[in-house]
Design goal:
Elements: H1 2-21, H2 60-72, H3 75-80, E1 83-87, H4 93-106, E2 110-113, H5 118-131, E3 137-140, H6 159-162, H7 168-184, E4 189-190, H8 215-230, E5 235-241, H9 262-269, H10 271-279, E6 283-286, H11 306-316, E7 322-325, H12 331-334, H13 339-349, E8 354-355, H14 360-372, H15 378-394, H16 408-412, H17 415-428, E9 430-434, E10 449-455, H18 460-469, E11 472-474, H19 480-487, E12 492-498, H20 511-523, E13 526-531, E14 548-551, H21 557-567, E15 600-601, H22 611-614, H23 616-626, E16 632-639, E17 642-650, E18 666-667, H24 672-686, H25 696-699, H26 713-717, E19 745-746, E20 755-758, E21 761-763, H27 767-777, H28 791-804, H29 808-820, E22 826-827, E23 842-844, E24 850-852, H30 859-863, E25 873-875, H31 877-888, E26 892-893, E27 896-897, H32 901-907, E28 943-947, E29 951-956, E30 961-967, H33 978-981, H34 984-994
């Protein structure tokens, strides 16, 4: 009878227990209820754990707060602290009210925010905190930044990309930024880093979220990231214990199985945790995994396993921080039991915080009933709740302050984010093959480069940046044979494989893509650049014919820019592969490449300047355009070999039909002097064919016995030779009606009239001889004084052509432009470029009587067929910057020496400053008084030139700054130079110098 009574009582209790757990929950008959955990938890504080520092202890005042709060709480309030509920800032009012109810009625302990926006989330956080008796924990998954969950916030590279980086200071710096942004958003926990060793390349849920497949690399990266995050007062959470890397199933969809032995787990998967614990990891997230070697019950999730959570994680590994479950709504565990049962099982297993519980009211009823039945003790409850309170105290929630929403967006998206982003990719991008040193591409004058796109995502930044280095032709054709026919003339084919950066999207190459790569590699000199996870390479079995292989990891705009830099040698390759690719490439494979001293691209902060100050340039440019000083402008700023500002403003003309693009080509006027003539003269000097004392009579026979025969080279180029500023050569070519004379001009090209200076206007080929005769016969000043003259460079052009037997337009291309990659620079640009890329300079009403677009504005240069020593070059800011950087590097660029450092120094010397002449040898120099070509803030070693059409190029060896300003201020009529009077170029230069921080 006694046995029967006991049996009835047990059945009655069990019935109540089950009923309570089902409140508000649809019963699934397939679910099994198993509660199998000790009713008491071992006091871990008493354990002799030597591998974990005392990072989770409080000072007496902290412990007093914890005890005071705990002792004042009701049982239900203590239960509520265990729950961290999912919240969204992109859902409707019903969702918001449901969270309100959980906070007010059930006293939940925290919120885990998912999708939404930063300001909306901040406002909701403030709202929810205001309704909570005890301040809430706020957490989020921000593995690659707040952008993982929130719109309008920053997204950093994935962990697998970071895994290629060897410099842990950069990873820690990233952690600092993640911590700063998390703190600004009111987050207390960033549920990162992922500590999983991704040993299964087919892992559908970890993969790119892992730092790689090597436990040592994963650990050092995770420690660095954690240190950065936690230095900002935000707690890091290592996940997914006991290790989710060797799985083939997504735990959001089912229960993955880990078949590794406990020994293997202890040796590999546990390794990062043990090291992280010693370094002060605040919390751990336990995954929903089936691990037979750790849990004897079949298909029993690790997150609710007492052996995993308590015996192993806490007792064996000695972890004393907070323990979170993975989200309890995931199929891997939610299909296993009823929600209230899962919550209770997770708690009994030893977890402190239950993430994303599905039915909090039912769960609290379950906890209440279980407590009344002595299924767990007050000690067990206090162990977790007091630990939670300790962390709330550490988070400053004992004196909670609301999130300030003013300037939130701006502060979350600071330029420092992007500056670091550049640094990360500069250190991550990995070169796996470099046959015959195909990388970086050298000898641009001998190259003909094509680009072929593969993949389904954007490639704009990559192609645009490639074209800033060399002429790169985009080739496309669906038919492989037709494609190859188009590629036949090219020496190098860059193949870009571009896949979306959307998380978890499939990057795998299709069979036809693999075949296409093989075909292209078989028939061309190929550089394959993969803008996707390295696992995208797995299907390729033969890399023999691929000369260059680059893994860029992701397809962000910055990744594309930096990868193009690497291909052309602006940066060296530093990355190491974080995972193996079959047997073709091993972990830590990664070749170094040469760094050629070509211009690269980055943010101002990476070269000691302030991006925000530089944005003031935009306002000055807008001022000039709005006041109709010029219809359009290009501005470029570089420092330390990196372009940090490159923008175009306005339109080609005031009718606003064509916007100015960075690739557009301007008539640079007198910049021609230092962009075309001077570098060729410096070659002659470097080859000792002339020196500073060489006279005009010795240089050019036509000056013998003239009044100019004794003018020496130094005086000539310092504008100290007494030459007139200019000569109106055009008057000699006009008839009595002041129109172009038929003696010298034709409307169509003929054998002796092939030099074109306008639409339907060709000049006699030998008119250049007439020009030189007029120069020889011209008067000179009676006394030696400074007089700026265009004639200097017209004389030098004649000298160069007669000395070398080649015209100046040919010389500059052969000696400089082709090898420098100045593929957007040319005399007579209409022979090479689309007219729509060339802003017009003027409507000529006095001689050519037409709109000048693609024809040189300067009439003297036009009379020489558009090729003169003082004017005629058309270029864009990027190309101008290259030759200015060549000067700044004292004759070297792209690892090619053009002339000696001594030659540059000789030409950049002001020999007559004492006499009031600021000029160098060919270069303009800063003003000696109040008035001159610069802002007055450039160093005296700086140099450059300005141009009549509203141009300026200036470089400063002391600050390593290159500044280029191009415009067509002469459009439509070149009258008053309002651009110059308003000091637009100088004011922009002043802003540049103000932006220097160090």
């Amino acid at each position: 009878m006694k046995k029967i009574s006991i049996k009835i009582l047990f059945t009655y209790v069990l019935f109540i227990f089950v009923a309570a757990s089902c409140v508000g929950t649809k019963i699934n008959k397939n679910k099994v209820i198993l509660t199998n955990a000790p009713v008491k938890v071992q006091n871990l504080d008493s354990l002799a754990i030597t591998n974990t520092p005392l990072l989770f202890e409080l000072q007496p005042e902290g412990n007093k707060w914890v005890d005071s709060v705990y002792n004042s709480m009701t049982l239900e309030e203590k239960f509520g602290q265990l729950f961290m509920v999912a919240a969204y800032s992109n859902k409707d009012s019903a969702h918001i009210k449901s969270i309100d109810k959980l906070i007010i009625d059930y006293k939940i302990g925290g919120l885990l925010f998912f999708q939404g926006g930063p300001v909306r989330q901040a406002k909701l956080s403030n709202r929810f905190q205001s309704k909570s008796k005890l301040p809430l924990f706020i957490g989020s998954d921000a593995e690659w930044g707040l952008g993982m969950r929130l719109d309008s916030t920053y997204t950093y590279p994935w962990n697998m990309t970071l895994g290629a980086i060897q410099d842990m200071k950069l990873i820690e710096k990233l952690g600092v930024q993640l911590g700063q942004q998390s703190k600004r958003m009111g987050l207390h926990f960033n549920f990162a880093p992922v500590l999983d060793i991704n040993s299964n390349p087919k892992n559908p849920i970890i993969g790119f979220r892992s730092f790689g497949e090597d436990k040592f690399k994963v650990t050092e990266h995770a420690i660095a990231l954690m240190k950065g995050v936690q230095s900002q007062g935000v707690f890091s959470t290592g996940k997914h214990f006991p290790g989710h890397g060797d799985t083939a199933m997504d735990s959001h969809k089912g229960l993955p199985t880990i078949n590794s032995s406990k020994e293997r787990l202890q040796e590999v998967e546990f390794y990062p945790y043990k090291k992280m614990f010693h370094e002060g990891l605040s919390s751990v997230m336990v995954a929903h995994l089936n691990v037979p070697s750790l849990e004897s019950r079949t298909n029993f999730p690790s997150s609710i396993s007492y052996n995993v959570v308590t015996n192993i994680l806490q007792n064996e590994l000695g972890f004393k921080g907070l323990i979170f479950t993975d989200a309890l709504n995931m199929k891997s565990v939610s299909d296993f039991k009823l929600p209230s049962e899962i919550n209770f099982e997770a708690f009994m297993a030893g977890n402190d915080v239950l993430l994303f519980p599905e039915n909090v009211p039912a769960a609290i009823e379950k906890f209440t009933l279980a407590y009344s039945l002595n299924l767990f003790t007050a000690e067990r409850l206090a162990f977790s709740v007091k630990k939670i309170l300790k962390f709330k105290y550490k988070a400053g929630l004992n004196s909670y302050k609301a999130i300030e929403t003013d300037n939130l967006y701006k502060e979350l998206n600071s330029v420092e984010n992007e500056a670091l982003h550049y640094q990360l990719y500069e250190n991550a991008i990995t070169v796996l093959k470099n046959t015959a040193a195909v990388l970086p591409i050298k000898n641009l004058d001998l190259q003909k480069i094509a680009y072929v796109k593969m993949g389904d995502d954007n490639n704009d930044a990559f192609v645009t940046t490639l074209k800033k280095y060399a002429e790169v032709t985009v080739i496309a054709d669906a038919n492989l044979d037709s494609l190859q026919a188009k590629l036949a003339p090219f020496t190098t084919v860059i193949v870009g494989y571009h896949k979306s950066d959307v998380a978890f999207r499939n990057d795998d190459m299709r069979a036809d893509e693999i075949a296409k790569i093989a075909f292209l590699a078989q028939n061309n000199n190929v550089i394959l650049d993969v803008f996707a996870k390295p696992y995208a390479l797995l299907p390729i079995t033969n890399y023999q014919n691929i000369e260059g292989l680059v893994v860029s990891y992701q397809n962000s705009a910055i990744a594309q820019v930096v990868s193009a830099e690497l291909i052309f040698g602006a940066i060296e390759a530093k990355g190491k592969l974080p995972v193996s690719i079959n047997t073709s490439f091993k972990i830590n494979d990664g070749l170094s490449t040469d760094k050629l001293n070509r211009l690269g691209f980055t943010l101002a902060e990476n070269v000691g300047m302030d991006s925000e100050i530089l944005t003031k340039i935009d306002g000055i440019a807008a001022k000039a355009i709005n006041a109709k000083m010029t219809p359009g402008i290009q501005v470029l700023v570089a420092r330390n070999g990196k372009v940090i500002y490159q923008k175009s403003f306005g339109y080609h003309t005031y009718d606003k039909t064509i916007k100015v693009q960075n690739s557009d080509i301007y008539d640079v006027a007198s910049l021609t002097k230092i962009l075309a003539t001077l570098p060729n003269v410096m070659l002659q000097y470097d080859q000792q064919k002339i020196n500073l004392e060489t006279t005009l009579g010795a240089m050019s026979p036509i000056f013998k016995d003239s009044n100019k025969q004794n003018i020496n080279f130094k005086d000539l180029l310092s504008h100290y030779a007494g030459l007139p500023a200019g000569i109106p050569f055009y008057k000699a070519a006009m008839d009595k009606s002041k129109l172009p004379s038929e003696i010298y001009f034709r409307k169509k090209s003929e054998d002796q009239f092939s030099k074109q200076l306008g639409d339907s206007l060709f000049i006699r080929n030998d008119f250049s001889d007439t020009i030189m005769e007029m120069i020889v016969k011209s008067k000179i000043l009676s006394k030696k004084e400074y007089k700026y003259s265009d004639l200097t460079f017209m004389i030098l052009k004649d000298y160069l052509e007669k000395t070398t037997g080649k015209t100046l337009d040919v010389l500059i291309q052969e000696n400089f432009y082709r090898s420098l990659g100045m593929n957007n620079s040319s005399f007579n640009p209409l022979t090479k470029f689309d007219k729509n890329r060339i802003p017009p300079t003027e409507t000529d009403t006095y001689f050519r009587r037409q709109l000048l677009q693609g024809y040189v504005n300067d009439l003297s240069a036009a009379l020489e067929g558009g090729v003169s020593g003082h004017a005629g070059i058309f270029s864009n800011a990027m190309d101008v910057a290259k030759i200015m950087e060549l000067y700044l590097q004292k004759g070297s660029y792209g690892n090619q020496r053009y002339f000696s450092e001594k030659t540059f120094e000789d030409f950049n010397t002001c020999y007559f400053c004492a006499a009031g002449n600021r000029r160098g040898v060919g270069f303009d120099k800063p003003q000696l008084g109040l008035v001159g070509p610069t802002c007055g803030c450039a160093s005296m070693t700086s140099f450059g030139h300005t141009g009549y059409t509203g141009t300026m190029a200036w470089a400063d060896p002391e600050t390593q700054i290159v500044y280029v300003f191009l415009s067509n201020r002469t459009y439509p009529i070149a009258n008053e130079n309002r651009l110059s009077k308003a000091n637009i170029r100088e004011d922009i230069q002043k802003i540049i110098y103000e932006a220097i921080k160090n």
